[in-house]
Amino acid sequence: MNIEYKELWATILSGNTWNGEFLNKAKDGKLFWEQTLISPIKDECGNTSNFLAVKENITEKKELFEQLTSSKELAEAANIAKSQFLATMSHEIRTPMNGVIGMSGLLLDTDLDEEQRGYAKIVNASGENLLALINDILDFSKIEAGKLDMEAIDFDLRTTLEDTAEMLAIRASQKGIELICHIDPEVPHYLTGDPGRLRQIITNLVGNSVKFTHQGEIVISARVDSEGEEFVVVKFDIKDTGIGIPANRIDALFSPFTQVDGSTTRKYGGTGLGLAICKQLTELMGGKIGIISEEGKGSTFWFTSRFARQSSEVHEVPEVLKRTEISGTKILIVDDNLTNRLLMIALLKHWGCPNETASDAEKGLALLREAALQGNPFRVALLDQEMPGMDGSELGRRIKADPLVESTLMIMVTSLAQRGDVALLQQIGFVGYLPKPVRQDQLHGCIAIALGRANQTSSNVSKGIVTKHTVAEASKRGIRILLAEDNIMNQKVAQSILGKIGYKADVVANGLEAVRALEMINYDVVLMDCQMPEMDGFQATAVIRDSESKVLNHKVPIIAMTANAMKGDREICIEAGMDDYLTKPVKRDELSAVLEKWSTKTTVCLADTIQIK
Ligand code: ADP
Known about the structure:
The protein starts with a helix and ends in a 13-residue tail after the last helix. It has helices spanning 3-13, 59-108, 114-144, 157-174, 195-212, 247-250, 262-268, 274-284, 319-322, 338-350, 361-373, 392-400, 421-428, 440-455, 468-477, 488-500, 511-520, 537-545, 569-575, 588-600, and strands at residues 18-25, 31-42, 48-57, 153-156, 178-183, 190-193, 217-227, 231-240, 289-294, 298-309, 331-334, 355-358, 380-384, 409-414, 432-435, 481-484, 505-508, 525-529, 558-562, 580-583. Residues 312-323 and 601-613 have low confidence and may be disordered. The protein is 45% helix and 21% strand. It binds adenosine-5'-diphosphate (ADP).
């Protein structure tokens, strides 16, 4: 008796109904499938007296199902083959395309007459367009073939977003559109995920917004959507004041090769692949994508992404930067753009700065005078350059010409940076100058440095204007580095490289001295030679990490510097408790990258300083 029959009898003898499929043989010898239901019928005493059987011939259904399954498998295989073909082709086409773009670029650098230059420019631009299209197809086919792997690397969300916004702001400002980047202060800095793909989605969505917006503004914003102990879901909005999308076209937009209408393509170019790729990427990042739009009024594309929190999120702000406190500083914002004013208000509130806003220069000047007359003047004024009527520079001149308010520290915020601006602004009397979209750390740093300089009476305080470069340099200088190295020659080399990339370090000659220095000073980073007399780098690291030792910060990042460039050395250093690894001779780029990596984790977020009081 085969297994089905055994089961059947066991089921019905225990008083239950059996339901199953049998392969039967008909009288003519043909095999057929039967769906069979057998229920026991009980007599008055509760004993099984008979059976009720219901049968249905399901041979055709079964055959149909098998056919469908095999066609589905065939279709899937064909789809994968297609995607692989596209991926290979796109890849093959990229190589000669780079030749076309590279060579026409070189050609453009040679002596050409007007006509030749015109032709070469067209070849170059067409090459760029074609490459963008091929990149899209390559991405799309990789996603379809399931070949696109997401990275899980540690990154700083603010830096990624602000870098992306800065790059896109150039395109926007060429069209006279304001680009604003608003990251809610609650969004964590340090996350683990794929910053490259995040950048790709934002570039695509903001790129579209720039393309389809002719006046007004584009706002990129980020806020926490939901969070747990180990993860954060961030919601990003890209809002524009462009042509918008008709309601009946919205559903189809995220399908590949879809555009709102054919004439759009002719007018604006594009493949209709961008949004399909964004949708797939957001799904791969554990999120969703959507759009709210009204024709003629603008669109808001939103998407969510899930990131892991960085496991080592001990990003303490060092003493030096704690001193750059700006809370309590009364600040006036003068900007005609409402979104910008709201963004500034949110940041200043977060930093603990009382503030007021004015939507034009006249109102701004009136507010400054009024506050001064009441004996509670504004210390700092953030002025937008491009305003209808009186612009930022003119307002600056008027402030400086008015004895009542001329001591206000003026910072210019502008999206149209031009050569010569700095000299002109300095001449007017501005103390700071920042490009839009404003970066949180730059704004905080600029205000802090300007205040610091103004509060010092000594005559050797720099009178130069504070720019984003000043802020970057200051945050580098604020980093205290300890270099532990016994060889004099190596000390000199390391110090000279550090100097060239804008850092300074204190030097000690062995592990014991390093430990003593760390007991007295809260260094931000330690560069640790491994082989040293008295106490080597490994022993010193063990003492530093030992919570019983007197070292001030047991978690200080330690970067090993060793002459052993053997495989496995890195692991040995990491196992010994060090955080990173450099091989000697130390190279400038590597040192710079490693310091940037470990010092941003502890410092550059000047914006955070106010949280630590
Ligand atoms: P592409 O821009 O390459 O054509 P996309 O998939 O990125 O492809 O966009 C598809 C279509 O969606 C665009 O052609 C356009 O019609 C519409 N669209 C996308 N973003 C916007 C926007 N911000 N405003 C108006 N229309 C948009």
